[in-house]
Amino acid sequence: MEILITNDDGIYAEGIFALAEALKKVGNVTVVAPDTQRSAVGHAITITDPLRVVTARRNGKFFGYAASGTPADCVKLGIKAIMKKKPDLVVSGINLGGNQAYNILYSGTVSGATEGALLGIPSMAVSLDTFVNPDFRGSAAFAAKLAKLMKTKALPHGTLLNVNLPNLPARRIKGVRVTTQSLTCFNDWFDKRTDPHGNTYYWMTGDYKPKDSDKKSDLNALRAGYISVTPIHFDLTNYAFFGELEKWGL
């Protein structure tokens, strides 16, 4: 099994290292990831500048390829220019911080997996729902377990799996829920500040305030101590409204 790994936290992030080590027990791993932090870039691709790639080492050994582009760029590069064989699986992560609800629209982690799905390859994004004291071992082990399942199970065309794990010891995780995308938006605001030179700048911050009580939503599953696995796809058509729009007489 040929596995392509990427992320948006950068090739030297601890999450991608834990993921690669776990997936090496499942198949042949190739890492192509951004050379630095690329969080919240969404599905951006680079078309006006060249993409530069250098080899990256960890613990004195070759680890993968560091690219100057986005997660989506890295998946394209990996499949079309670096790997000798087309991958059987694309895995993006492990992200530091959850990617649920409307966050998935901004997430570079999810977009890395989405690019894999666009190119016809089974793909998943994996995120750990914390920014404090992360322990990626459990997330990596679950990703490896899911990768083995994806060897034999088929995903519909254009569908990928968005996986979020609570930052809990294994004994405290209640199980796995197949979930829907929560309809909760990130409640953001801007702190207005002044730099040492007297110039004004703004720093975005915020939090989640869940709006739905559906136990099947990704956000509520995580808050209840479950691993969330959401099947998502990139067809954005609102089919329920399609017929009504046709009646508008455009």
Structure, briefly:
The protein has 250 residues and is α/β, with parallel strands linked by helices. The protein contains six helices and eleven strands.
Written account of the structure:
- With 250 residues, the chain is an alpha/beta fold.
- The chain has one domain (2-246): 3-Layer(aba) Sandwich (Stationary-phase Survival Protein Sure Homolog, Chain: A).
- The protein is 25% helix and 31% strand.
- The chain is built from 6 helices and 11 strands.
- The chain has helices at 14-23, 71-82, 108-118, 137-152, 218-223, 239-246, and strands spanning 2-6, 28-34, 53-58, 61-67, 89-96, 123-129, 159-166, 175-178, 186-194, 200-208, 226-233.
- Helix 2 packs parallel to helix 3 (108-118).
- The N and C termini lie far apart (50 Å).
Protein traits:
250 residues; 31% strand; Stationary-phase Survival Protein Sure Homolog, Chain: A; alpha/beta; nine-stranded mixed beta sheet
Topology of this protein?
Blueprint: E1 2-6, H1 14-23, E2 28-34, E3 53-58, E4 61-67, H2 71-82, E5 89-96, H3 108-118, E6 123-129, H4 137-152, E7 159-166, E8 175-178, E9 186-194, E10 200-208, H5 218-223, E11 226-233, H6 239-246
Helix pairs in contact: 1-4, 2-3
> Order of strands across the biggest sheet?
3-4-2-1-5-6-7-11-8
Helix content: 25-40%
Helix and strand content put the structural class at: alpha/beta
Number of helices: 6
Output the radius of gyration: 19 Å
- Straight-line N-to-C gap: 50 Å
**Large-scale geometry:** globular
pLDDT under 50 segments (min length 5)? none
Largest sheet: 9 strands, mixed
